[in-house]
Specification:
This protein is mainly alpha-helical. It has 13 helices and no strands. The longest helix has 29 residues. The two termini are 29 Å apart.
């Protein structure tokens, strides 16, 4: 219970910091933009390139503009949440967003979260992103082993039936996981 409360407090603090930052950016750009902010393409592109969170203030037209969304997610991966559903389904944009902030996978389309190749590219660098992959992908040994190599704790998000698979356990234990191998063997009852 203590860890859950701590994580919840951390997420609340992170959210509050983002809201504060968005208010600061809104104030900074309000003098440079027309009365209705982010209606002009060039102004929008410039604004989101320096502060991706400003995509949330953009009109729906610009949130569906691939170049504007690409600039936004390159600056702040979580700006993917403000992108149009069509662009949340763009694997290239999702990858760019996740390279900036792995949590962006949460805002990707179901199709992207179910794309094993895309998720594998993300979890190699950001193992915790496995939590946002589809259950089908979290059940694929090769993807989970890639995440496990980066952080043994990523097993928390593996599909339960995968953890019962002797083949997976063997593959995970054979993976080079630095200092985690001994602990992992112990966790699986082999040490």
């Amino acid at each position: 219970m203590g860890a859950g409360v701590s994580a919840e407090k951390h997420l609340k603090r992170e959210y509050d910091l983002r809201v504060t930052r968005l208010k600061e950016l809104r104030a900074k750009f309000s003098t440079a933009l027309p009365d209705e902010p982010l209606l002009h393409r060039d102004a929008t592109l410039t604004a989101v390139a320096s502060a991706g969170a400003l995509l949330f203030m953009a009109s729906a037209k610009w949130r569906a503009d691939r170049a504007i969304v690409l600039a936004a997610v390159a600056s702040d991966g979580l700006a993917l949440a403000a992108a149009s559903p069509e662009l949340q389904d763009d694997a290239e944009l999702v990858l760019v967003a996740c390279q900036q902030n792995w949590r962006a996978l949460e805002y990707a389309s179901r199709r992207c979260c179910d794309d094993a190749e895309l998720v594998a590219k993300i979890v190699v660098d950001w193992p915790a992103a496995l939590r946002y992959a589809s259950l089908r992908v979290r059940g694929l040994s090769q993807v989970v082993v890639l995440a496990f190599k980066g952080a043994a704790s990523s097993l928390e998000w593996a599909a339960p039936e995968l953890l019962d698979s002797a083949d997976f356990v063997e593959a995970a234990l054979a993976a080079e996981v630095g200092g985690w191998v001994g602990r992992s063997k112990k966790a699986f009852g082999f040490a």
